Amino acid sequence: MNKMIRPLLMTFAGLTLLTGVAYPLLTTGLGKLLFPSQVEGSLIYRDGKPVGSSLIGQQFTEPRYFWGRLSATAPMPYNGGASGGSNLGPINPALSDAVQARLTALQAADPDNKSPVPVDLVTASASGLDPHISVAAALYQLNRVARVRGLPVDKVREQIEANTEQRQLGVLGEARVNVLKLNLALEALK
What is the pLDDT of residues 115-167, one digit of tens each? Predict the structure, then answer.
């Protein structure tokens, strides 16, 4: 029996060191070397303090801010520990209610805006954490944000353009706007 236990314990110890210590250290080290910002959480700093991540959305509800996509995470919006979509189908009344509530909020915040509402302003992303909106969604909110902030529309449009991220590798996805970065850029205009 001792002949079997010693090799088993040695194998267990060796695999623990290899997969539990060496591999995580190697992958973390390579990550920090090749992708330092991402490994640190892609944090965005303001006045030397972290205010969020460029990879996880934040909830903005005041009319002076651009609003992001809805978040279906629980118990609070944009909860990184509970990433996931709502899994509500297109005929589910709860989805219709959520879309209608967002439409009502958008119309109440900007009653003069008669433009069609971009779909990403009334639906949640698959992860519930999406930090981006489409350029169309940003332009839909342009007049409201400019009016509430007392800024010229052209000045706010410049910030949208400056914070628009193009397609990845020139072909993947669509142009998009990071809501947190855009709102921080507007705050910096003061």
Answer: 999 999 998 888 888 899 999 999 999 999 999 999 999 999 999 999 999 98
Q: What is the sign of the dihedral through the CA atoms of 61, 121, 97 and 88?
A: negative
Question: Do 20 and 69 have their domain in common?
Answer: no
Whether residues 114 and 27 fall in one domain: no
- Whether residue 35 is found in the same domain as residue 110: no
pLDDT in tens, 16-69: 999 999 999 999 999 999 998 888 888 888 888 988 888 888 999 999 999 999
Angle (CA) 72 86 132, round 5°: 50
DSSP 72: -
Rounded Cα distance between 176 and 74, Å, is 25
Domain residues for the domain of 147 are 42-188
Radius of gyration of the chain (CA): 23
Same domain, residue pair 88 and 17: no
Residues 33 and 89 in one domain: no
